Amino acid sequence: MTASENPSGIAAEIDFRTGGNQRAFERTGFSVEESFGTWTLGTESSIVIPRSGDPVAAELSITLRPCLAGGSASEQRLKVQVNGCEVYSGKLKVATAIRLSLPAVIFAGNRNIALTFEHPDAIVPAFVTASSDTRRLGFQFERLSLRQKGHLPVPAITPTDAGRQPASPVPPKDAEVHVGKDGWLFLTGGTNEALRYYTDPDYFTDAHAQKWVDLLIARRERLAGRGIRYLHIAAPDKISVYPEMFDGDLPGFSRHPIRLLQAGLDARGQSDVLINPFDAFSASAQKETLYLKTDTHWSYYAGVMVLAMVTERLGQPRNPDLSQRMKHVYHHTWDLGAKVTPPAPEEYFWIKTAPTVERFYANDLAVNFEKNAKQGKPVLHGSVNVAFRNSDPAAIQQTVVIFGDSFMDFQDSNTTVIFAENFREVHFIWSPRIDYSYVERVGAGVVITETAERFMISIPKDDYDVVKEGVASLAFYERT
């Protein structure tokens, strides 16, 4: 059934099997349809369903099965979000039909219905079984239906009267977002259970920190043996930088992950491998500009500070003058602002990339990410690969390879581009793992890894191969 066949605007029946209608809907992170359904690719997938008319309560039903490999992968985790609100989280071991009741408030203020599926345990069958399938698979979707249940009251969202302050945003029930003081929003839930870092001493322990210390030292030694400099950037979570704006108790604040990592490296005499912005951010006279109130990520100003810290450590300090850059101001509803009611947009700015910088490579995932981001559609994180060259003779004459996450976003006005404006060549791969063959093939002189503090509960294994996982191709290597 297509959107034109349902005037209520929220009903949809999607068949993912061969001959089904899934191609009538905007999708990311899905493979081609097969007789029993369509597999998800990577660790996140999404579907967009058009909506018209008044928001009403609905029932979401999904029939799917996990990709398993016996003892190597006996279950798969799945998280489902609807318009940014988490509605399901669980572990699946067999084919399952999930049925969820959705309140009308989830659909209010959204023209489309965005369904996002996170499946972090996706596996490559060829790596763990006798299969020749090299796709990274999570779940095979067979059917999905969204059916209205009847009208329920929806909170009115109206413009604020002149002279009045807008109402405080309210997170949905069981939300991942904490509404702090003065409109500051903090991620507290999610797959990594972000708040537990600050409240549960048994969540991220000294043993976890020690594993990170061992990993960073091993990376440094391996790369140093090849004449390559290595640095790791620890990206602080907002709670770490703005605890005073969190409206509640944080009994474990003194043991948040970056502090434990720094202490562990100090004890081993290896602290210079770590770029730790925490103290500089906390003491900055412009602290309020380093993160947006309604987003989880650091801002352009913070990215410039991180660049300055990295180049200082490399012995070639750069501190770009932002006063001469043209800023284009706009309003946008960021990741946390989209999770509260009413949605909380925030003013930000965009800076055009310097004309000396050319992006000479972008894989399909990067192109699709940018396309969907510009259209306000769900984006697929992970496995993005882009590369930049800078013709400015004043640029630092090094090739830098960055393995990071969304804090090092590769688009205009983001941190990877800030690096590209200051180095001769910069490669970015959206991954917590290092591919050492990639580093050698592109002739890197510097390797940088970056990890958001909330992801530190997971210790990465550097077994990445961008060719086997379809992130880049040998043809790309030949061009570089």
Question: How does this model look, in words?
Answer:
It is a single chain. The chain is an alpha+beta fold and 480 residues long. The chain has eleven helices and 22 strands. The chain has two domains: 148 residues, Jelly Rolls; 303 residues, no CATH class. A seven-stranded mixed β-sheet has the order 15-14-22-20-21-19-18. Strands 1, 3, 4, 6, 9 and 11 form a six-stranded antiparallel β-sheet that branches. It is globular, with a radius of gyration of 23 Å. The termini are far apart. The N terminus is likely disordered.
Mean pLDDT: 85
Count of structural domains: 2
Overall morphology: globular
- Residues in β-strands, percent: 25-35%
Write the layout of secondary structure elements.
Layout lengths: L11 E4 L10 E3 L1 E5 L2 E5 L2 E7 L6 E10 L9 E7 L2 E8 L3 E7 L9 E7 L6 H4 L8 E14 L26 E3 L5 E3 L8 H4 L6 H19 L4 E7 L2 H4 L15 H11 L6 E2 L2 H6 L16 H14 L13 E6 L13 E6 L5 E6 L1 H11 L10 E6 L5 E9 L10 H6 L2 E8 L5 H6 L4 E7 L21 H6 L1
Parallel strand pairs: 14-15, 14-22, 20-21, 20-22
Antiparallel strand pairs: 1-11, 2-5, 3-4, 4-11, 5-10, 6-9, 6-11, 7-8, 7-10, 12-13, 16-17, 18-19, 19-21
Helix pairs in contact: 3-5
Keywords:
globular; 22 strands; six-stranded antiparallel beta sheet; 2 domains; single chain; 480 residues; Jelly Rolls; 11 helices; alpha+beta; seven-stranded mixed beta sheet; disordered N terminus
Question: What would you say about this model in short?
Answer:
This protein is of the alpha+beta class. The chain has helices spanning 125-128, 196-199, 206-224, 238-241, 257-267, 278-283, 300-313, 364-374, 415-420, 436-441, 474-479; strands at 12-15, 26-28, 30-34, 37-41, 44-50, 57-66, 76-82, 85-92, 96-102, 112-118, 137-150, 177-179, 185-187, 229-235, 274-275, 327-332, 346-351, 357-362, 385-390, 396-404, 423-430, 446-452.
